Structure formats: structure tokens, C-alpha cells
Amino acid sequence: MTSHGSVPRDHTHRYLSVADALRREINDGTRRPGDRLPTQSELVSRFGVSRATVNRAIEVLREQGLIESRQGSGTFVSRSGRGIPAQAGAGDGEDVWAVVSERVPPVVLAPYLEEAFEATEVTLDVFSMTTETLAARVSAQKTRIMDGEIRPPRSISARLMLPDTDSPVLAIPRLQDGRDDPRVRRRLRGILQAHASMLSQSLYELRDRGLVSEVSVEVRLVPFAPQLKLYILNRRLALQGFYPPELGTITVPPDGEEVTILDAYGTGATLFPFRAAADSTPEQVGIVRAFQFLFDSMWKHQAKEADF
């Protein structure tokens, strides 16, 4: 869900934030397969944590197959095993970082969004905890269009479905002991509003500059926290990711109190792709259609218009 910014001061959970930051750098391509990770001393200095915390974070990434240690050489982003690079479905030659090598390898959002924005009509249906990742990626597509790198689409339509922070029964985020804290929900609302506004401004700027004739951005809220994130691009590609609940420490206004919460962190997370195309398997096509039906049903029956 939310970005912690700096590593939390709660020693119990610091290693998770360190692991999350490094995982995000691997998944967004900052650190490529075969790249050497910083030394333990460098990571200690960067994050302001102990060597034991760094070791624990490294072990988390190693268990996930994202990194591998080589005796006498250091720790590197994995090239093989569970962490092999896979090619984007569009065949554009770009490496997409895969955490697990199976029939449906997980990927990251950027190359698929690039592909989607090269269509004549662009549709984005999004169900997620926030739109932090999407807002940044859409801004990058706006730049591609404004720089003349790709031909502007004729229309762009985005539907964003997010958790309703007015609901005191949201399972996430909550205090560690399970109690609801309105300050935590207000913090989430600010994050939702900031990133949704960033995305909207990027798309409407394309319309205002006369580059895209039709732009529509709708935001609706549902009274529950999503356990997965779902992107449906141009009604032909579904990208599904997960929000594993984790403990983290945040600072809440007005007095800057630090509280430990159960939260969900999806920034930089990998996604499972399912494509509905002429050469897709019936299973892939069926999954995309099922995701679209699920999104449309929740949008129609459970979501209400956002007041921001």
C-alpha cells in the first residue's frame, strides 16, 4: 500500500523495509540480473540499520530467489533458478524481471503499459490499494507522447477502483493489535488522493495540449481493502499481483506518533500476466474475460464515486 519513506525505527520490522526497497529496485530494473548488490557495510550506511538487519533482509530476498551469493565475490541479482529474465509478451526484446519461472512468469508493469499506450484507444481498469506505481508509469507514457516517441492515441480512458478510507472495517491498514485508527485511514486517503491526482493530471495534460482528443478518468471506492492488485489494459491483458499483509511502522499526524500497523506493500511488486490474443490459450483468454467481468461487476454494484 503505502510508502514508508525512510526505514521504520521499529527494529522488529526494519528488515522488511530494507528487503522491500531492494526488491523494488530489482523489479523496476534499477538492478538487473547479474548486477552486484552493495556490500553489507554500504547497505548499513544507506538504510541506517544494523548489520544483522541487513543480513535478515538479504536472506528474505535469497529465499524468494531474487538474489544469489557467490563465495568470495558478493551477492548478485539472480540470473537463473527462480529468478530468470523473461521476455515481454509483445516480443519487444526488453527483459522483464521474473521472480518465478513457470508457465505464467511474473513481470513488472512498465513494458506492458508501454505496449498499451501504443494502441489507438487506451483503456486502463485498475483495482488496487493505491495507484502509486501506475501514476509514475503513466507519467512516463505522457512524456513519450509529448516527446514524439510514440503516436498519440485517439482516446484514453482510466477507471480506478480503490479502498474507501471512510470505512472503519478495512482489514488493512489497521493497528498491529487489530484496532481501527482513523489517523491511519486518513493517511491512506492522502496517499490515494495524491497519486490519483498525479495520474489524472498526466492524462488531462495530454488532452489540454491537443495531443489526445478524448480523456476520461473515473475514481470509485469500495468498502474493503483489496488482497490483490489488478490491471486490465485495453481489455486484452490482465496483470494480477498480490498484497501480502506485513507489519510496518509509520508516523501519523498531528503529533508525529509512530505506530505499528498491518499493511500491504505493492510498490515494485511482480505481476502475473494473462493475455487475450489470437495466439493465446483458451485458459488465458478465459482468465482475462473473468477478470474483466469481476472488475465490471464490482464497479457497477459495489463501488461508489470518490469525493476527491
Question: What would a concise description of this structure say?
Answer:
With 308 residues, the chain is α+β, with helices and mostly antiparallel strands. The protein has helices at 14-27, 40-47, 51-63, 110-116, 132-146, 182-208, 282-301; strands at residues 67-70, 74-77, 85-87, 95-97, 121-127, 155-163, 174-175, 214-222, 228-233, 237-242, 245-252, 257-264, 272-275, 304-305.
Protein described:
There is one protein chain. By secondary structure, this protein is α+β, with helices and mostly antiparallel strands. It has one domain. Helices cover 34% and strands 24% of the residues. The chain contains seven helices and 14 strands. The strands form four sheets. The protein has a seven-stranded mixed sheet with strand order 13-10-9-5-6-8-14, with helices on both faces. The N terminus is likely disordered.
Largest sheet: 7 strands, mixed
Spatial strand arrangement across the major sheet: 13-10-9-5-6-8-14
Give the number of helices.
Answer: 7
As residue ranges, the low-confidence spans are 3-10, 80-105
Q: Between the first and last Cα atoms, what is the distance in angstroms?
A: 18 Å
Number of strands: 14
Fraction in helix: 25-40%
Q: How many domains, as an integer?
A: 1
**Percent range for β-strand residues:** 15-25%
- Report the average pLDDT across residues: 84
Report the principal-axis shape.
globular
Order of helices and strands: HHHEEEEHEHEEHEEEEEEHE
SSE topology sketch:
Layout: H1 14-27, H2 40-47, H3 51-63, E1 67-70, E2 74-77, E3 85-87, E4 95-97, H4 110-116, E5 121-127, H5 132-146, E6 155-163, E7 174-175, H6 182-208, E8 214-222, E9 228-233, E10 237-242, E11 245-252, E12 257-264, E13 272-275, H7 282-301, E14 304-305
Parallel strand pairs: 5-6, 6-8
Antiparallel strand pairs: 1-2, 3-4, 5-9, 7-12, 8-14, 9-10, 10-13, 11-12
